[in-house]
Amino acid sequence: TCSFGIGGVDVKRVRSMVVVKAETGGVNSINPDIRKNEEKVVDSVLVNELSKPLTPYCRCWRSGTFPLCDGSHVKHNKATGDNVGPLLVKK
Amino acid sequence: TCSFGIGGVDVKRVRSMVVVKAETGGVNSINPDIRKNEEKVVDSVLVNELSKPLTPYCRCWRSGTFPLCDGSHVKHNKATGDNVGPLLVKK
Ligand code: FES
Ligand code: FES
Asked: Which residue in B54, B53, B85 sits closest to B72, CA to CA?
């Protein structure tokens, strides 16, 4: 038997094997899925080409329309207790 | 004794206690420190007020000048194997 804790939760009396996988892409990575073939994901906004007065851009790396925000930060925040939100670009 | 794995790394023959703390702010949170007193961190860019032709905005939640990017994504990517980078706002 052994005892260990994850995020403050104690896990006791483990008899055989426990597999803990923190997140796809490595412990403490914040982008599990988006364009993992790129060494660094950088995007550009050309402000002259913005069509709407307000465009939200994703900073949670969970959007289905990345680099745009599709509201997925709400699910991420609820699931994890996080408090991330988008960058609003206004013209 | 017991055996478990974290991020693909097996940890074997643990005899007493192991404490695994994933990240400040909860497992899988991506913002450990910035404005944790706010329920959701949202920022605005007014494009008419941009002073430079190119302004990088942080999407890694590690910048000392958040919401601006200060290059801290480089350290985060190296430490974790992640591939995050800024949003470049260009006028
Ligand atoms: S979906 Fe990522 S910040 Fe909104
Ligand atoms: S410091 Fe966060 S993206 Fe550059």
From this structure: B85
